[in-house]
């Protein structure tokens, strides 16, 4: 959690248009502290923390299952353990990706929301209301926006 404010700033830096809201890291830290207080540095952190247990549980369950299933095969592109790890990682990240989307949407909330490259960012207040709003406006597909890029 100690590096979460840097993740928040990374998201806000990438959301900026040519009109820079935060010219550098120090300015960003000062502005968030001044305008949003300490809580501003942790917008979306509950969604970030909420991903950890399901991701790790799904990862290890699928990895262990796939590792056993692939144990007897000679694979031309690597060991069964490596393939199991890749498939488990992709599967787990895809399953928790909606929480990542929520985290990013919550990170760009605040007084500068209307000045980012997408000026029509809706106001979100929490995990469940953000999930609901995304599904209502963008359907389930909206929860996975950007997944193919990552």
Task: Please provide a written account of the structure.
This protein is mainly α and 150 residues long. The mean pLDDT is 90. It has 5 helices and no strands. Helix 3 packs antiparallel against helix 4 (80-107). The chain is 60% helix and 0% strand. It is elongated.
What is the topological layout?
Layout: H1 4-15, H2 25-36, H3 45-70, H4 80-107, H5 127-138
Question: Care to give the gist of this entry?
Answer:
By secondary structure, the chain is mainly alpha-helical.
Structural class: mainly alpha
Radius of gyration: 19 Å
Q: How does the overall form come out from the CA principal axes?
A: elongated
The first-to-last residue Cα distance is 22 Å
State mean pLDDT (0 to 100 scale). Answer: 90
Describe the biggest sheet?
none
Order of secondary-structure elements? HHHHH
Number of strand segments: 0
Poorly predicted residue ranges: none
Question: How many separate helices?
Answer: 5
Q: Helix amount, in percent?
A: 55-70%
Proportion in β-strands: under 5%
Q: Which features characterize this protein?
A:
mainly alpha; 150 residues; single chain; elongated
């Amino acid at each position: 959690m100690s590096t979460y404010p840097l993740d928040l700033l990374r998201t806000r830096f990438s959301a900026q248009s040519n009109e820079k809201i935060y010219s550098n890291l120090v300015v960003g830290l000062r502005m968030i502290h001044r305008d949003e207080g300490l809580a501003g540095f942790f917008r979306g952190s509950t969604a970030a923390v909420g991903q950890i247990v399901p991701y790790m549980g799904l990862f290890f369950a699928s990895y262990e299952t796939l590792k056993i299933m692939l144990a007897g095969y000679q694979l031309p592109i690597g060991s069964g353990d490596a393939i199991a790890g890749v498939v488990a990682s992709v599967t787990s990240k895809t399953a928790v990706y909606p929480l990542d989307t929520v985290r990013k949407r919550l990170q760009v909330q605040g007084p500068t929301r209307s000045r980012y490259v997408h000026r029509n960012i809706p106001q979100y207040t929490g995990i469940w209301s953000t999930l609901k709003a995304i599904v209502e406006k963008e359907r389930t597909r909206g929860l996975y926006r950007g997944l193919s890029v990552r």
